Amino acid sequence: TRHDDLTALTLSDTPRANSEALERIYFLAAEHDLPVMIHSNITSKRERNPLYLPELEDALRDHPRVRFIWAHAGTSMEIHRHQENLVFLFDELERMLGLYPNLYIDLSWTVLEPYLLDGDGQPEARWVKLVESYPDRFMIGSDVVGSFKNLGKHMSGFDVFLDALTEPVARKVAKGNFLAILPQGTGASASPGAAQR
After folding, report:
1. CATH code of the domain in which 77 resides
2. CA distances (Å), origin 100, targets 14, 121, 139
3. Which DSSP helix (H) or strand (E) runs through 62?
């Protein structure tokens, strides 16, 4: 969907989280109990508001049986080149987590810094509190593509944030939450929010 300059490489309709083309994927995911990871920027590199958020909210609302993993919470390097910190991101995530039990947040790539960790590399207290408030809805990731030789280094960057969480929540965020949203038969539960049971 809308993801930095990749969107500009398409012809005709702009790819959106609520596009007709993705409807078939969502129906397939619901039918086979598959989670959908969606790369959908929350805004453009110029706008200082959640310009594209309604597109994602349409998909979340219209497909409650689909577990959506929002890749790096709608942020990206390109957005951060133009806007260092999306001041609205925290409040929007908090609101959406309360509204959509089928929304899961991938904390990879551009979420660790500048959001989870402050300028000194210390955990941001309000983010720790948010993750603790929704312990089944967050997961870490790498967003590494191509070469995986530095995967361990990327993942260890989360250690200081995970250490700020209670141990049971840290385990869920590090591994358990992702496993819990996989289809039945893979050691996972099937319905949105099932990891909370």
Report:
1. 3.20.20.140
2. 25, 31, 16
3. helix 53-62
